[in-house]
TrEMBL record:
This is Tripartite motif containing 36. CDD domains: FN3. One of its GO terms (molecular function) is ubiquitin-protein transferase activity. Keywords: Coiled coil, Membrane, Transmembrane, Transmembrane helix. The keyword Transmembrane helix applies. The chain crosses the membrane at residues 357-380.
Length: 384
Protein backbone atom coordinates (compact mmCIF):
# COMPACT_ATOMS: atom_id res chain seq x y z
CA UNK A 1 0.00 0.00 0.00
CA UNK A 2 1.24 3.50 -0.69
CA UNK A 3 2.72 5.18 2.30
CA UNK A 4 1.99 8.75 3.37
CA UNK A 5 4.73 11.27 2.54
CA UNK A 6 5.04 14.20 4.91
CA UNK A 7 5.46 17.78 3.57
CA UNK A 8 8.76 17.98 5.38
CA UNK A 9 10.05 15.03 3.42
CA UNK A 10 8.83 16.54 0.17
CA UNK A 11 10.69 19.80 0.82
CA UNK A 12 13.88 18.00 1.79
CA UNK A 13 13.84 15.95 -1.41
CA UNK A 14 12.96 18.92 -3.68
CA UNK A 15 15.62 19.63 -6.30
CA UNK A 16 15.06 22.07 -9.19
CA UNK A 17 15.83 20.57 -12.55
CA UNK A 18 17.11 23.87 -14.16
CA UNK A 19 19.45 25.63 -11.77
CA UNK A 20 21.20 27.51 -14.57
CA UNK A 21 17.95 28.98 -15.86
CA UNK A 22 17.12 30.29 -12.37
CA UNK A 23 20.43 32.20 -12.18
CA UNK A 24 19.80 33.65 -15.62
CA UNK A 25 16.34 34.73 -14.53
CA UNK A 26 17.71 36.51 -11.47
CA UNK A 27 20.28 38.36 -13.57
CA UNK A 28 17.64 39.32 -16.10
CA UNK A 29 15.46 40.75 -13.34
CA UNK A 30 18.42 42.67 -11.90
CA UNK A 31 19.40 44.06 -15.31
CA UNK A 32 15.83 45.04 -16.07
CA UNK A 33 15.60 46.86 -12.77
CA UNK A 34 18.78 48.89 -13.37
CA UNK A 35 17.89 49.59 -17.00
CA UNK A 36 14.52 50.90 -15.86
CA UNK A 37 16.25 53.21 -13.41
CA UNK A 38 18.61 54.47 -16.12
CA UNK A 39 15.98 55.16 -18.77
CA UNK A 40 13.25 56.42 -16.43
CA UNK A 41 12.73 60.22 -16.26
CA UNK A 42 15.18 61.87 -13.87
CA UNK A 43 14.57 65.15 -12.06
CA UNK A 44 16.49 68.09 -13.56
CA UNK A 45 19.59 69.52 -11.97
CA UNK A 46 19.00 72.57 -9.77
CA UNK A 47 19.53 76.02 -11.31
CA UNK A 48 22.01 78.50 -9.86
CA UNK A 49 20.96 82.05 -8.92
CA UNK A 50 23.21 84.54 -10.74
CA UNK A 51 24.37 87.11 -8.20
CA UNK A 52 26.03 89.23 -10.89
CA UNK A 53 22.73 90.01 -12.63
CA UNK A 54 20.30 89.90 -9.71
CA UNK A 55 19.28 93.18 -8.09
CA UNK A 56 17.02 93.70 -5.09
CA UNK A 57 15.53 97.07 -4.14
CA UNK A 58 11.86 97.62 -3.20
CA UNK A 59 11.37 95.23 -6.12
CA UNK A 60 13.74 92.36 -6.83
CA UNK A 61 15.05 91.12 -10.16
CA UNK A 62 16.22 87.53 -9.68
CA UNK A 63 18.18 85.85 -12.47
CA UNK A 64 19.46 82.29 -12.58
CA UNK A 65 21.35 79.94 -14.85
CA UNK A 66 19.70 76.70 -15.85
CA UNK A 67 21.66 73.48 -15.56
CA UNK A 68 23.22 72.41 -18.85
CA UNK A 69 21.88 68.84 -18.91
CA UNK A 70 20.73 69.14 -22.58
CA UNK A 71 17.07 68.63 -21.62
CA UNK A 72 14.68 71.56 -21.49
CA UNK A 73 12.71 72.24 -18.34
CA UNK A 74 9.00 72.98 -18.22
CA UNK A 75 9.16 75.87 -15.76
CA UNK A 76 10.86 77.20 -12.64
CA UNK A 77 9.47 78.24 -9.27
CA UNK A 78 11.13 80.94 -7.16
CA UNK A 79 10.66 80.96 -3.40
CA UNK A 80 11.61 83.74 -1.01
CA UNK A 81 11.14 84.70 2.61
CA UNK A 82 11.90 87.61 4.87
CA UNK A 83 14.39 86.58 7.52
CA UNK A 84 13.47 87.35 11.10
CA UNK A 85 9.80 88.02 10.36
CA UNK A 86 6.59 86.16 9.51
CA UNK A 87 7.50 83.07 11.52
CA UNK A 88 5.24 80.04 11.65
CA UNK A 89 4.42 77.85 14.66
CA UNK A 90 7.80 76.11 14.46
CA UNK A 91 9.66 79.42 14.57
CA UNK A 92 10.82 79.41 10.94
CA UNK A 93 10.01 82.05 8.32
CA UNK A 94 7.41 81.03 5.77
CA UNK A 95 8.46 80.65 2.15
CA UNK A 96 6.47 82.53 -0.47
CA UNK A 97 6.09 81.00 -3.93
CA UNK A 98 5.94 82.92 -7.18
CA UNK A 99 3.91 81.85 -10.18
CA UNK A 100 5.46 79.48 -12.69
CA UNK A 101 8.36 81.14 -14.50
CA UNK A 102 9.10 80.12 -18.09
CA UNK A 103 12.44 81.88 -18.38
CA UNK A 104 15.73 82.55 -16.58
CA UNK A 105 14.49 85.51 -14.49
CA UNK A 106 11.52 86.99 -12.69
CA UNK A 107 10.56 90.10 -10.72
CA UNK A 108 9.43 89.99 -7.08
CA UNK A 109 7.35 92.95 -5.92
CA UNK A 110 6.39 94.56 -2.62
CA UNK A 111 9.61 93.89 -0.72
CA UNK A 112 9.93 95.80 2.53
CA UNK A 113 12.67 98.37 2.95
CA UNK A 114 15.72 97.71 5.12
CA UNK A 115 15.02 93.97 5.35
CA UNK A 116 16.95 90.77 4.71
CA UNK A 117 15.46 88.30 2.23
CA UNK A 118 16.48 84.79 1.27
CA UNK A 119 15.81 83.35 -2.21
CA UNK A 120 15.93 79.89 -3.77
CA UNK A 121 14.68 78.40 -7.04
CA UNK A 122 14.08 74.95 -8.51
CA UNK A 123 13.17 73.57 -11.94
CA UNK A 124 10.39 71.23 -13.02
CA UNK A 125 10.41 68.70 -15.86
CA UNK A 126 7.65 66.14 -16.48
CA UNK A 127 6.17 66.88 -13.04
CA UNK A 128 9.52 66.08 -11.40
CA UNK A 129 11.13 68.89 -9.40
CA UNK A 130 14.84 69.43 -9.04
CA UNK A 131 16.48 70.02 -5.67
CA UNK A 132 16.50 73.62 -4.50
CA UNK A 133 19.31 75.88 -5.56
CA UNK A 134 21.65 77.15 -2.83
CA UNK A 135 19.95 79.94 -0.90
CA UNK A 136 21.16 83.49 -1.47
CA UNK A 137 20.37 86.53 0.69
CA UNK A 138 19.87 90.16 -0.28
CA UNK A 139 19.43 93.21 1.94
CA UNK A 140 16.90 95.70 0.64
CA UNK A 141 17.80 99.43 0.72
CA UNK A 142 16.54 101.70 3.50
CA UNK A 143 14.35 103.65 1.05
CA UNK A 144 12.53 103.15 -2.26
CA UNK A 145 14.70 103.09 -5.37
CA UNK A 146 15.09 106.46 -7.09
CA UNK A 147 15.20 106.16 -10.88
CA UNK A 148 17.03 108.71 -12.99
CA UNK A 149 19.25 109.09 -16.03
CA UNK A 150 22.18 111.41 -16.58
CA UNK A 151 21.13 114.91 -17.63
CA UNK A 152 22.75 115.92 -20.92
CA UNK A 153 21.40 119.50 -20.83
CA UNK A 154 22.28 121.04 -17.47
CA UNK A 155 26.00 121.88 -17.53
CA UNK A 156 26.91 118.79 -19.53
CA UNK A 157 30.23 119.14 -21.39
CA UNK A 158 30.12 117.02 -24.54
CA UNK A 159 33.74 118.04 -25.17
CA UNK A 160 35.01 116.22 -22.07
CA UNK A 161 32.24 113.78 -21.13
CA UNK A 162 31.11 110.83 -23.26
CA UNK A 163 27.54 109.87 -22.39
CA UNK A 164 26.21 106.37 -23.10
CA UNK A 165 23.39 105.90 -25.60
CA UNK A 166 20.92 105.06 -22.85
CA UNK A 167 22.24 107.91 -20.66
CA UNK A 168 23.00 105.45 -17.85
CA UNK A 169 26.81 105.68 -18.07
CA UNK A 170 29.31 108.47 -18.57
CA UNK A 171 33.05 108.57 -19.20
CA UNK A 172 35.55 111.39 -18.86
CA UNK A 173 37.89 112.01 -21.77
CA UNK A 174 40.41 114.56 -22.96
CA UNK A 175 38.67 116.95 -25.35
CA UNK A 176 40.18 118.26 -28.57
CA UNK A 177 40.74 121.71 -27.09
CA UNK A 178 42.66 120.22 -24.16
CA UNK A 179 44.78 118.06 -26.47
CA UNK A 180 45.64 121.03 -28.69
CA UNK A 181 46.48 123.17 -25.66
CA UNK A 182 48.72 120.40 -24.33
CA UNK A 183 51.21 121.08 -27.13
CA UNK A 184 52.18 124.30 -25.36
CA UNK A 185 52.36 122.71 -21.91
CA UNK A 186 55.81 121.73 -20.64
CA UNK A 187 55.46 121.61 -16.86
CA UNK A 188 51.80 120.70 -16.35
CA UNK A 189 48.36 122.22 -16.50
CA UNK A 190 45.27 122.55 -14.37
CA UNK A 191 42.61 119.94 -15.01
CA UNK A 192 39.26 120.49 -13.31
CA UNK A 193 36.35 118.22 -12.56
CA UNK A 194 33.52 117.96 -15.05
CA UNK A 195 30.15 117.61 -13.36
CA UNK A 196 27.03 115.84 -14.51
CA UNK A 197 23.79 115.40 -12.58
CA UNK A 198 20.65 113.30 -12.67
CA UNK A 199 17.69 114.40 -14.77
CA UNK A 200 15.27 114.13 -11.82
CA UNK A 201 15.40 116.13 -8.61
CA UNK A 202 14.29 115.37 -5.06
CA UNK A 203 12.15 117.77 -3.02
CA UNK A 204 10.73 115.46 -0.32
CA UNK A 205 10.86 111.97 1.16
CA UNK A 206 13.57 109.31 1.33
CA UNK A 207 15.21 108.00 -1.84
CA UNK A 208 17.98 105.53 -2.66
CA UNK A 209 20.08 104.93 -5.77
CA UNK A 210 23.14 102.83 -6.54
CA UNK A 211 25.89 102.97 -9.16
CA UNK A 212 29.27 101.53 -10.03
CA UNK A 213 32.59 103.32 -10.40
CA UNK A 214 35.21 101.43 -12.38
CA UNK A 215 38.12 100.26 -10.19
CA UNK A 216 40.72 101.92 -12.45
CA UNK A 217 39.00 105.31 -12.19
CA UNK A 218 41.39 108.20 -11.60
CA UNK A 219 39.11 110.50 -9.58
CA UNK A 220 35.33 110.66 -9.21
CA UNK A 221 33.21 112.65 -6.77
CA UNK A 222 29.78 111.27 -5.94
CA UNK A 223 26.95 112.58 -3.81
CA UNK A 224 24.14 115.13 -3.84
CA UNK A 225 23.92 118.86 -4.48
CA UNK A 226 21.18 121.48 -4.48
CA UNK A 227 20.00 123.29 -7.59
CA UNK A 228 21.41 126.61 -6.36
CA UNK A 229 24.85 125.12 -5.71
CA UNK A 230 24.87 123.43 -9.11
CA UNK A 231 24.15 126.73 -10.85
CA UNK A 232 27.04 128.25 -8.95
CA UNK A 233 29.41 125.48 -10.04
CA UNK A 234 28.36 125.52 -13.68
CA UNK A 235 28.48 129.31 -14.05
CA UNK A 236 31.64 129.85 -11.98
CA UNK A 237 33.84 126.83 -12.73
CA UNK A 238 36.93 128.43 -11.17
CA UNK A 239 35.21 129.62 -8.00
CA UNK A 240 37.50 128.61 -5.16
CA UNK A 241 34.58 128.32 -2.75
CA UNK A 242 33.18 125.37 -4.70
CA UNK A 243 34.62 121.84 -4.73
CA UNK A 244 35.39 122.29 -8.43
CA UNK A 245 38.58 124.04 -7.33
CA UNK A 246 39.85 122.77 -3.99
CA UNK A 247 42.83 124.79 -2.83
CA UNK A 248 45.21 122.62 -0.82
CA UNK A 249 47.19 124.45 1.84
CA UNK A 250 49.96 121.89 1.47
CA UNK A 251 50.56 121.16 5.16
CA UNK A 252 47.53 119.04 6.14
CA UNK A 253 46.05 121.82 8.19
CA UNK A 254 42.56 120.84 7.16
CA UNK A 255 41.68 124.35 5.95
CA UNK A 256 40.46 122.89 2.65
CA UNK A 257 37.93 120.77 4.59
CA UNK A 258 36.32 123.65 6.47
CA UNK A 259 33.09 123.26 4.51
CA UNK A 260 32.43 119.92 6.20
CA UNK A 261 32.21 121.52 9.64
CA UNK A 262 28.88 123.10 8.74
CA UNK A 263 25.76 121.90 6.97
CA UNK A 264 26.14 122.71 3.28
CA UNK A 265 23.76 122.29 0.32
CA UNK A 266 25.98 119.53 -1.07
CA UNK A 267 27.90 116.46 0.06
CA UNK A 268 30.44 114.75 -2.18
CA UNK A 269 32.70 111.79 -1.47
CA UNK A 270 35.89 111.19 -3.41
CA UNK A 271 36.55 107.77 -4.93
CA UNK A 272 39.32 106.67 -7.23
CA UNK A 273 42.05 104.11 -7.85
CA UNK A 274 40.10 101.47 -5.96
CA UNK A 275 39.64 103.56 -2.80
CA UNK A 276 37.00 105.69 -1.13
CA UNK A 277 38.03 108.77 0.87
CA UNK A 278 35.79 109.98 3.68
CA UNK A 279 35.72 113.70 4.61
CA UNK A 280 37.23 114.86 7.88
CA UNK A 281 34.86 114.89 10.80
CA UNK A 282 35.92 118.42 11.77
CA UNK A 283 38.60 121.00 11.16
CA UNK A 284 40.32 119.91 14.37
CA UNK A 285 40.67 116.28 13.23
CA UNK A 286 44.20 114.93 13.17
CA UNK A 287 46.18 114.47 9.98
CA UNK A 288 46.07 110.67 10.01
CA UNK A 289 44.30 109.63 6.80
CA UNK A 290 44.35 105.87 7.37
CA UNK A 291 40.98 105.84 9.13
CA UNK A 292 39.43 107.86 6.31
CA UNK A 293 40.49 105.59 3.42
CA UNK A 294 38.31 102.59 2.63
CA UNK A 295 38.40 100.02 -0.17
CA UNK A 296 36.03 101.14 -2.90
CA UNK A 297 32.90 98.94 -2.98
CA UNK A 298 31.88 97.29 -6.22
CA UNK A 299 28.66 99.28 -6.05
CA UNK A 300 28.03 102.46 -4.07
CA UNK A 301 24.59 103.31 -2.73
CA UNK A 302 23.36 106.78 -1.73
CA UNK A 303 20.29 107.42 0.42
CA UNK A 304 18.96 110.96 0.80
CA UNK A 305 16.48 111.73 3.56
CA UNK A 306 15.24 115.12 2.38
CA UNK A 307 12.90 115.79 5.29
CA UNK A 308 15.56 114.97 7.90
CA UNK A 309 18.31 116.74 5.94
CA UNK A 310 20.69 113.80 5.98
CA UNK A 311 22.58 111.77 3.37
CA UNK A 312 23.98 108.23 3.74
CA UNK A 313 26.56 106.33 1.68
CA UNK A 314 26.41 102.51 1.53
CA UNK A 315 28.20 99.50 0.22
CA UNK A 316 25.33 98.56 -2.10
CA UNK A 317 26.14 94.83 -2.07
CA UNK A 318 26.08 94.41 1.71
CA UNK A 319 24.02 97.51 2.61
CA UNK A 320 26.62 98.51 5.19
CA UNK A 321 26.56 102.24 5.92
CA UNK A 322 30.00 103.72 5.22
CA UNK A 323 29.39 107.41 5.92
CA UNK A 324 26.59 109.81 6.84
CA UNK A 325 26.31 113.51 7.47
CA UNK A 326 23.94 116.44 7.65
CA UNK A 327 23.10 118.25 4.41
CA UNK A 328 21.18 121.46 3.82
CA UNK A 329 18.13 120.48 1.75
CA UNK A 330 16.94 124.03 1.14
CA UNK A 331 16.13 123.49 -2.54
CA UNK A 332 15.74 120.69 -5.02
CA UNK A 333 18.50 118.11 -4.54
CA UNK A 334 20.07 116.21 -7.44
CA UNK A 335 22.39 113.19 -7.68
CA UNK A 336 25.74 114.74 -8.61
CA UNK A 337 28.90 113.26 -10.14
CA UNK A 338 32.24 114.91 -10.83
CA UNK A 339 34.69 113.13 -13.13
CA UNK A 340 38.36 113.48 -13.92
CA UNK A 341 39.88 110.88 -16.23
CA UNK A 342 37.39 108.15 -15.32
CA UNK A 343 33.90 106.81 -15.81
CA UNK A 344 30.90 106.15 -13.64
CA UNK A 345 27.54 104.57 -14.16
CA UNK A 346 25.00 102.09 -12.92
CA UNK A 347 26.36 98.97 -11.34
CA UNK A 348 27.37 96.02 -13.52
CA UNK A 349 29.78 93.39 -12.27
CA UNK A 350 30.59 89.79 -13.15
CA UNK A 351 30.69 86.71 -10.98
CA UNK A 352 31.90 83.14 -11.24
CA UNK A 353 29.36 80.90 -12.93
CA UNK A 354 28.76 77.40 -11.62
CA UNK A 355 27.23 76.10 -14.86
CA UNK A 356 30.60 74.73 -15.97
CA UNK A 357 30.84 72.64 -12.80
CA UNK A 358 27.29 71.37 -13.30
CA UNK A 359 28.05 70.45 -16.92
CA UNK A 360 31.20 68.58 -15.90
CA UNK A 361 29.23 66.65 -13.27
CA UNK A 362 26.64 65.77 -15.92
CA UNK A 363 29.34 64.37 -18.24
CA UNK A 364 30.86 62.25 -15.47
CA UNK A 365 27.44 60.96 -14.45
CA UNK A 366 26.50 60.06 -18.03
CA UNK A 367 29.84 58.30 -18.58
CA UNK A 368 29.34 56.26 -15.38
CA UNK A 369 25.86 55.21 -16.48
CA UNK A 370 27.10 54.04 -19.89
CA UNK A 371 29.91 52.04 -18.27
CA UNK A 372 27.44 50.41 -15.87
CA UNK A 373 25.13 49.35 -18.73
CA UNK A 374 28.08 47.81 -20.60
CA UNK A 375 29.16 45.88 -17.49
CA UNK A 376 25.65 44.53 -16.95
CA UNK A 377 25.37 43.49 -20.58
CA UNK A 378 28.66 41.59 -20.45
CA UNK A 379 27.64 39.91 -17.19
CA UNK A 380 24.37 38.71 -18.69
CA UNK A 381 26.16 37.36 -21.73
CA UNK A 382 28.70 35.55 -19.54
CA UNK A 383 26.15 33.80 -17.30
CA UNK A 384 23.84 32.89 -20.15
Amino acid sequence: PPRNISPREVMCNFNPSTQGDLITLLWSLLCSHWLYILISPLPPLPPIIDLSRSRVYNEGLLCWQLAEDTLATDHQVLEYRRLGKEQDEEGASRWRLTDKVYGPSTVVCDLEADSLYSFRVRSCRNSLYSPYSPEVTFHTPPAPAFGFLFNDNCGFSSERLALGKRRDSVESMAGMAFLLAAERVQTGSYMGLDYIIGDTGISQGRHYWAFRVEPHSYLVKVGVASDSKLLEWFHNPRDTSSPRYDHDSGHDSGSEDTCYDLSQPFTLLTVGMGRMFLPKASISADGDHSNRVLPMPQRIGVCLDYDAGRVYFYDADTMRCLYERQVDCSGTMYPAFGLMGSDAGPSTHTGLSLSTLAFAFMLVSAFSQVCFVVILFLSVQYFS
